[in-house]
């Protein structure tokens, strides 16, 4: 499972705005160009929505437990 960061969780929203390509479509923005990737690696800070992240962790735990129970 992959946790997808919402626009409001990224500090880049304050810099670029919520409708900028940097946030709306990171793959298109980077487009294989490593120097564009630096925006995410060096500039971005995250403010995780704890309630949303908890729901994600609960789902992840249930899937892992189900897998482990099948393997036993």
TrEMBL record:
It comes from the Eukaryota. This is Uncharacterized protein. It comes from Lithocarpus litseifolius.
């Amino acid at each position: 499972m992959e946790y997808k960061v919402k626009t409001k969780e990224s500090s880049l929203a304050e810099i670029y705005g919520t409708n900028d390509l940097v946030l709306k479509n990171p793959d298109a923005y980077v487009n294989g160009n490593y120097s564009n990737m630096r925006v995410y690696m060096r500039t971005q800070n995250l403010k995780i929505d704890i309630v949303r992240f908890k729901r994600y962790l609960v789902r992840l735990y249930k899937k892992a437990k189900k897998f482990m129970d099948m393997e036993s």
